[in-house]
Amino acid sequence: MENKDVYILAIESSCDETAAAVVKNGREVLSNIISSQIDIHTLYGGVVPEIASRKHIENINPVVRAALKEAKMELKDVDAIGVTYGPGLVGALLVGVTQAKAMAFAANKPLIGVHHIEGHISANYIANKELEPPFICLVVSGGHTHLVVVNDYGKYEVIGHTRDDAAGEAFDKVARAIGLGYPGGPKIDKVAKEGNENAIKFPKAVVNDAPLDFSFSGLKSAVLNYINSCQMKEIEYSVPDIAASFQKAVVDVLSEHAIKACKDRKINKLAIAGGVSANSAIRSRMIEECKKNNIEFYYPPIILCTDNAAMIGSAAYYEYIKGERSDYYLNAIPNLKLGER
Ligand code: KG4
Ligand code: ZN
């Protein structure tokens, strides 16, 4: 490892947050600026890709400037520029990638393309200074549900994934069906606190013969069917009970599979990452289950669970010290696989 401090300016624009951060030595956040577009997308009930791209273009320069200012740095002071180049919305990713390439070229700085999920996983390095691989990470976001063995920095083995909807997508779709609106995850989290999680028995989001995989579309359909049948029978249904029972079904499968992965691989460190890991029921269940099973549990603060650039700066640092560099042909790859470069 280099003995000089390394400062990374990182940029994230894969979905509906325009974000920039300065991170020191992969673990210390000097600034973390996030400009959320949630208000505008809420009007449409979800992220509108074309609007997201346009908003990123408007926001990217002020956001990057604010990140440097808050870190009390200028572009010339940073060692490298890290940027999310996939997966995500292509038009949204392109804004960040183009910005990073232009800045790297103008200031003659190394450019490091980062996988968005690698960023989510790395949020745990910022939050837990002592965390080192190997560990198991459950990545649950709006677009992804992966169980990953982090064998080393930047070395991932995906041992479980969703066969259909991502966990966050299920939260968002169910929230829409019960009239809570977008983004659904935080709203279900809140309303569920008023409900009875045992009121309705929804099916387990499992896949036969693939004990670490997930399938959330059946669970989502079961919720929709429940609502339809109540409406047809003119029975009043309880939104808090549906939210709590649905959330319990998600939490059950996520925690069971994550603990199983730790046991199967004989790794007693478990981390969670991604927007859905902000969920209060998931966090408290994982704390409980890990304690029962003698597993150390790691989780980022809420601000580092949902999309941000600090996590990208952390991931970029570990690539930087390995000597990984991207060239000016770096492009946005909407369906980039974890572990590919
Ligand atoms: O990681 P993220 O910000 O973006 C992606 O990479 O997808 O995750 C966004 C997802 C959304 O589906 C949102 O509803 C969900 O994370 N989410 C939550 C909570 N906060 C955000 N889901 C459940 N409970 C929450 N508290
Ligand atoms: Zn994300």
Question: How would you describe what is shown here?
Answer:
Strand 1 and strand 2 form a beta hairpin. The protein has 341 residues and is an alpha/beta fold. The mean pLDDT is 96. It contains eleven helices and ten strands. 50% of the residues are buried. It binds 5'-O-[(R)-(carboxyoxy)(hydroxy)phosphoryl]adenosine (KG4) and zinc ion (ZN). The site of zinc ion has 6 residues, from helix 4.
State the low-pLDDT regions, or none.
none
- How far is the first residue's CA from the last residue's CA? 21 Å
Largest sheet at a glance? 5 strands, mixed
Give the overall pLDDT as a whole number.
96
Any chance you could write out the topology, listing elements then pairs?
Layout: E1 7-12, E2 17-24, E3 28-36, H1 38-42, H2 49-70, E4 80-86, H3 90-107, E5 111-115, H4 116-127, E6 135-140, E7 145-152, E8 155-161, H5 167-177, H6 184-192, H7 217-232, H8 239-265, E9 269-273, H9 280-292, E10 296-298, H10 302-305, H11 310-322
Parallel strand pairs: 1-4, 4-5, 6-9, 9-10
Antiparallel strand pairs: 1-2, 2-3, 6-7, 7-8
Helix pairs in contact: 2-3, 4-11, 5-6, 5-7, 5-8, 6-8, 8-9
The structure holds 5'-O-[(R)-(carboxyoxy)(hydroxy)phosphoryl]adenosine (KG4) and zinc ion.
Residues 15, 141-143, 168, 171-172, 183-186, 189, 274-276, 278-279, 306-307 line the site of 5'-O-[(R)-(carboxyoxy)(hydroxy)phosphoryl]adenosine.
